[in-house]
Each structure stands twice: as C-alpha cells, then as structure tokens.
C-alpha cells in the first residue's frame, strides 16, 4: 500500500551566497512515519529542517505538505498548516510559566484553541511529557531535560500534522536519554508523523522507520535504517576514506 | 466574560481614582487645573505609547506626528464638521499613518525603527508647513470653540481611562498573548503560528489612534495651531522620558513617571525658562543610566528581594 505522502520535498536547494547548504534534496515522508535525517556536522540537516518549517526560504525546488506547496511561505503560515518544531538550542519563553509556554503552541498554531480549552490541553500535554504538577513553575529554572520536555509539549499543542525535532535528544545524560527515547517512541505509536534530525545513533536505530542521510548538502542515501547505516558511502561520509 | 475577584478589585480601585480625579476642576480653576491638564495629557500620551512600546520594546519617536495630525484634523475642519466627528477623523488619520509606518519598518530591527519614526515626525511637520505656505497664505489655523480648560481635562481623563480599558482588553486577548510570546522570543512566536508583523502593526495603530485623539482634544486649548507647536518633537521625547521613568512593564507604570515629572518640569520651566532643554537632557541621561527599568521596575525588584528574604527567614525557622 502506498499512502500519499504527508510531506514531499522535491529538489530543494538553499544557497547562502556561494555556499550551497542544501543541494537538490528530495524525499517523502508518509503518514505516521518517523524519518531520521542524519549526517555529519555541517551536512545541511538543520538547514533542511529550516526550509520545511519556513525559517528559511528555499532558493529552488518545492516542498509540499499534504499535496499543497508550502515552500516560500512565511513560518507562521506553515505553522498554521500543521508543521511544528523544536529547536536545536532549546528555546523556552522565560517570562511565561510552563502552562503559558505550552498554551502558546495551542493558541496560534494548527488548532487555534483559546481560553479553558487551551489551558486544559496544556495541562494534559505537560502530564504527557512528564511535567505534571509543574504547570506554574518558572521555566528558566528548569533542568535541561525539563525544558526540552516543555518545548516538545509546546510543539505537540498545535496537534501538528508533521513534527520536526531538531536534535531533541542532544545534550541529555544517559538516563535522560532513555526517557527521551521512550517519549518519542510513544509519540510514534500514537501515529504522529515525525522528522528527527539526530546524532544519537542508538536513538536512530531504535526509533526510525527510515532514514535520509545527508553529506555536504546532498542526499547520499535513503532507506531502512540498518542497510542505510551500513552503506559504504555513508560510512565514508562519517568516518573518512580509510575506514570505508 | 468572567472576571476574577482580583480584577474586579483593581477595576473598582481604578474607577474610584478616576472619579476622584474628575472632581478636581470643582476645587480649582486656575493653576492646579492647568497643570492637571498637562499631567492628564501626558498620562494619556504615555500610556498610549506604552501600549505598543512596552511589550515590543520598540522606541517610537513618532508621537509628535500622530499628535500633530490629531490637532490639525480639528484645526482644518472645526468650522465645517461637529467636534466628535473630528476626534474620530483624528483617530483614523493617525491609525492610518501608524499602519503605513508599521508596514514599512516593523519588519526591521529596533534601531532603524527609532530613526525612522524620528525622521517621519519631522517629515510630516515639514510637509504640513510646506502645504500651508503653498495652498494658504497663513502660517497656522485658528481653533475657536466654547470649550474650557475643564472640558479638556475631563476629555483627557476619559481618554486615559479608555486607553487603560483597551490595554486590559488587549492583555486578555489573543493579541495580548501573542505580544507576550513575541516579547520573549520572536523566532518561537513565528514558529507557533503568530503573524508577528501583523500583531505589531495592529498594536502600533491602536497606540497611534489614541495619540491622535489626544491631539484632537488638545487643539481647542491652543486656539492657534501651527506646525512648530502641533508637531513639536519635544512631545515625542518627553513621552519617552516619562514612560521610561515610570517603567513600561505594566500599563500603569508610566503614570508613576508622568505625575512627578510634569510637576518638576513646570517648576523648572517657570524658574529657569532658558535652561529647560538642558534639564530634560540631563534627566534623560540619568533615567536611562540609573533606573533603566523605571520606578515600577525598582519597586518590583525590591519586592522580589523582600519576598526572597521572607522565604529564607521562613525556611530557617522551619529548620
């Protein structure tokens, strides 16, 4: 069965002056799929994510969400169509409490709830990510994992059609990593469609259905996790020629 | 609408203060009324300014432009249209200008916005001067009404109350929540689906409209209006100084700055009429340098410290 893709990226390109950060990258993400976007540092993964979320506009190529083009739209339009994301360096809203942080996702995004409805959803999601009872805690004083949880809850609050996680597991210690991985695993089982940019290979192996590997701005491999990670070109991109 | 008991209490207290302020012309018709009109004018201007500049942290120096347009809306048509209509026109004209300026500049970062608004106020003043010289032979306009100082005082008081109610309503709305998110992190704001440019433009237009209305209310007080007085750049600067002195985090913050500053300025300009600008300049430096968060900021800091000490003491006792 081939379901229509939720997201299809068709020959996306992003140039910064003479530097081509993303070059002719194409891939599809199916409904309910968890796609890993991996590659060495500087290979253009985060830029690719920024093109999808609208933080950057592609120089060429097309990105479509549910069959409708979103490439070139402003970030807030893309968010309202159902794409939400977390950030590589965690971004919480320090002057709001945890509840307010999550409500921000619910109020303006894909679902646009307001008042009690948004507040109830925020509480449900805080509980969902493991922050029950911390609704009114000052977020600046939270631990790193809690801030990451909060960001995830905010991204989920809009009930996104596509969730983008930009190195959401980075910087967690081993026990936090376990919690993080099982949290994403639960989301996958709920049927969320997710793209995760990640360096933590264990997480990629455990979680992803498929992965896309980028190197120097181009896609060098795509497919099931096990075969992709043993692909000789992928190994060369990560480890250099001698080890391939 | 469901109000919390806290909101009801603040609302009642505010209504009581406004009612008390409204009785002032019954006690004095001379000096105290005159200075109270000044205080009320800057109370309206500074809170309207803070409506936009508080949450966005954009410093607007276009106050004089909106104020002047409001004054001129009355001056140009006072003999042809009823006064309330002119107040409406003043609000519309000022809001339109704010919308144009916002669309052109609010996508840029703060510094450019400050410079642009300062330039804009001057441009509007020069345009009005030029148009008057070209199309009429007079330098100014006469505004004769049967309005007295106390009428103006009451209208400005009503305007200030309206600004507060509007600010409160915005804070409870999606727009207010959006502004809070934008003030925290604009990148996050965009990615949760907030049209940040639109939110800022709408707020700037609301703020500009209120400043325009303040200009329209002040017009009868001048009797004779001409560009140097109606578009006086000093208005823009004074509004910024007083608002910063009071503090812009809360909508009532500027009031704390307006009342003492207007009184001190009145004394200074009476005693040392030639050195007023120097005093204003020094005051500006001192405020920005010593109390960047304003008097209300200082109060909140002190309260936070006091509370921290209280809890520390409480913990020691418990231990």
Describe the structure in brief.
With 244 residues, chain A is α/β, with parallel strands linked by helices.
Q: Widest sheet of chain B: strand order?
A: 1-2
Task: Please report which band the strand proportion of chain B falls in: under 5%, 5-15%, 15-25%, 25-35%, 35-45% or over 45%.
Answer: under 5%
Outline the low-pLDDT stretches of chain B. Answer: none
- Total strands of chain A: the figure is 10
The SS-based structural class of chain B is mainly alpha
Termini distance of chain A? Answer: 36 Å
| Total of DSSP H or I helical runs spanning 4+ residues of chain A | 9
Q: Quaternary arrangement of the chains shown?
A: heterodimer
Shape of chain B: globular
- Order of strands, main sheet of chain A, comes to 6-7-8-3-9-10
If helices are DSSP runs of H or I spanning 4 or more residues, what is the number of helices of chain B? 15
| Beta-strand content bin of chain A | 25-35%
Organism (chain B): Neoaquamicrobium microcysteis
GO molecular function, one term (chain B): branched-chain amino acid transmembrane transporter activity
Keywords (chain B): Cell membrane, Membrane, Transmembrane, Transmembrane helix
Pfam families (chain B): BPD_transp_2
Task: Give the SSE map.
The complex is a heterodimer of chains A (244) and B (319).
Chain A: E1 5-16, E2 19-30, E3 34-38, H1 45-53, E4 60-65, E5 68-69, H2 75-80, E6 83-85, H3 98-108, H4 116-128, H5 144-156, E7 162-166, H6 174-189, E8 194-197, H7 201-207, E9 210-215, E10 218-224, H8 225-230, H9 232-239
Parallel strand pairs in A: 3-8, 3-9, 6-7, 7-8
Antiparallel strand pairs in A: 1-2, 1-4, 4-5, 9-10
Chain B: H1 5-22, H2 24-27, H3 31-56, H4 63-77, H5 83-105, H6 110-135, E1 141-142, H7 149-172, H8 174-184, H9 186-191, H10 196-222, E2 224-225, H11 227-230, H12 233-246, H13 253-271, H14 276-290, H15 294-318
Antiparallel strand pairs in B: 1-2
């Amino acid at each position: 069965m081939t379901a229509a893709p939720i997201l299809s990226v068709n020959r996306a390109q992003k140039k910064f002056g003479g530097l081509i950060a993303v070059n002719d990258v194409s891939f599809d993400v199916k409904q309910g799929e968890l796609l890993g976007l991996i590659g060495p540092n500087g290979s253009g993964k985060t830029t690719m994510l920024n093109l999808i979320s609208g933080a950057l506009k592609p120089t060429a190529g097309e990105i479509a969400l549910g069959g409708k083009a979103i490439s070139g739209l402003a970030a807030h339009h893309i968010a309202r169509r159902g794409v939400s994301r977390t950030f590589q360096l965690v971004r919480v809203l320090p002057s709001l409490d945890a509840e307010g942080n999550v409500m921000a996702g619910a109020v303006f995004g894909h679902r646009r709830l307001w008042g009690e409805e948004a507040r109830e959803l925020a509480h449900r999601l805080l509980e969902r990510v493991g922050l029950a009872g911390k609704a009114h805690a000052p977020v600046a004083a939270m631990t790193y994992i809690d801030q990451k949880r909060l960001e995830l809850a905010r991204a989920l609050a809009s009930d996104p059609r596509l969730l983008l996680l930009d190195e959401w597991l980075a910087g967690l210690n081993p026990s936090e990593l376990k919690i993080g991985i099982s949290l994403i695993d639960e989301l996958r089982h709920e049927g969320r469609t997710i793209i995760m940019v990640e360096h933590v290979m264990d997480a990629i192996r455990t979680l992803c259905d498929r992965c896309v590997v980028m190197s120097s701005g181009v896609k060098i491999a795509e497919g099931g996790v096990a075969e992709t990670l043993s692909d000789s070109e992928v190994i060369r991109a990560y480890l250099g020629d001698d080890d391939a | 609408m469901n109000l919390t008991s806290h909101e009801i209490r603040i609302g009642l207290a505010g209504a009581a203060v406004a009612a008390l302020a409204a009785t002032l012309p019954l006690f004095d018709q001379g000096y105290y009324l005159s200075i109270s009109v000044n205080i009320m004018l800057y109370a309206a201007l500074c809170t309207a300014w803070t409506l936009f500049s508080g949450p966005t942290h954009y410093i607007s120096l276009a106050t004089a432009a909106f104020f002047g347009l409001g004054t001129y809306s009355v001056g140009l048509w006072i003999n042809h249209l009823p006064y309330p209509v002119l107040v409406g026109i003043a609000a519309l004209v000022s809001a339109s200008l704010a919308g144009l300026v916002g669309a052109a500049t609010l996508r840029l970062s703060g510094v450019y916005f400050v410079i642009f608004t300062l330039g804009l106020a001057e441009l509007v003043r020069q345009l009005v001067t030029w148009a008057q010289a070209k199309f009429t032979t007079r330098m100014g306009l006469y505004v004769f009404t049967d309005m007295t100082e106390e009428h103006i005082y009451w209208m400005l008081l009503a305007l200030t109350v309206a600004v507060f109610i509007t600010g409160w309503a915005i804070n409870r709305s999606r727009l207010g929540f959006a502004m809070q998110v934008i003030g925290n992190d604009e990148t996050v704001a965009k990615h949760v689906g907030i049209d940040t440019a639109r939110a800022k433009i709408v707020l700037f237009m609301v703020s500009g409209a209120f400043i325009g209305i303040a200009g329209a209310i002040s017009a009868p007080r001048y009797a004779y209006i001409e560009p140097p007085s109606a578009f006086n750049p000093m208005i823009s600067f004074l509004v910024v100084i007083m608002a910063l002195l009071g503090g812009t985090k809360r909508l009532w913050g500027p009031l704390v700055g307006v009342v003492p500053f207007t009184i001190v300025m009145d004394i200074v300009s009476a005693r040392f009429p030639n050195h007023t600008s120097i005093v204003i300049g020094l005051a500006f430096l001192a405020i920005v340098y010593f109390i960047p968060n304003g008097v209300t900021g200082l109060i909140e800091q002190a309260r936070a410290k006091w509370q921290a000490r209280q809890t520390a003491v409480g913990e020691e006792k418990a231990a």
